[in-house]
Design brief:
The protein is rod-shaped and about 140 Å long. It has helices spanning 2-39, 43-136. The protein has one domain (40-136). It is mainly α and 137 residues long. The protein is built from 2 helices and no strands. It holds the Pfam family IQ.
Length: 137
């Protein structure tokens, strides 16, 4: 339990460090962008920069959406594969159990048949002995 808790704490620290790094990067990018836009005075240059930023945002949004779709597809493929592997393993276990059950049933049947034959042989021997004893009298 302590191992899991320590692992969770490490993961949380790593996540927070990553979040802080991302926030710092976002903040620095924002400050840089604002300084750049402050330097631009001409309307034509502003329009060009705006259009480029908008196009870049659309491109990145489309790229992120494609990445999310690919990740979802990968998860679906992995889920289906794990399901297939689990079904195969279950089928193998079930067939193995059935094979063992059949073998055990055959063993019990053979044992029962041997006991029955021995009982009949004993009964026949008793009858034969009684018959022979009667014949000798």
């Amino acid at each position: 339990f302590k191992h899991l808790q320590a692992q969770r704490e490490r993961a949380e620290r790593a996540r927070r460090a990553m979040a802080a790094t991302v926030l710092q990067a976002v903040w620095r990018a924002r400050l840089t962008r604002r300084a750049y836009l402050d330097l631009l005075t001409a309307a034509v240059v502003l329009q060009t920069a705006w259009r480029a930023a908008a196009a870049r945002g659309r491109y990145l949004a489309a790229r992120r959406a494609a990445a999310r779709r690919e990740a979802a597809a990968a998860v679906a493929v992995q889920k289906n594969w794990r399901c297939t592997v689990a079904r195969r393993a279950f089928r193998r276990q079930k067939l193995g159990a059935l094979t063992l059950q059949r073998a055990w049933f055959k063993h019990l049947q053979a044992q029962s048949e041997r006991a029955e034959r021995a009982r009949w042989a004993t009964a026949a021997a008793v009858l034969q002995a009684a018959w022979r004893a009667r014949l000798t009298r």
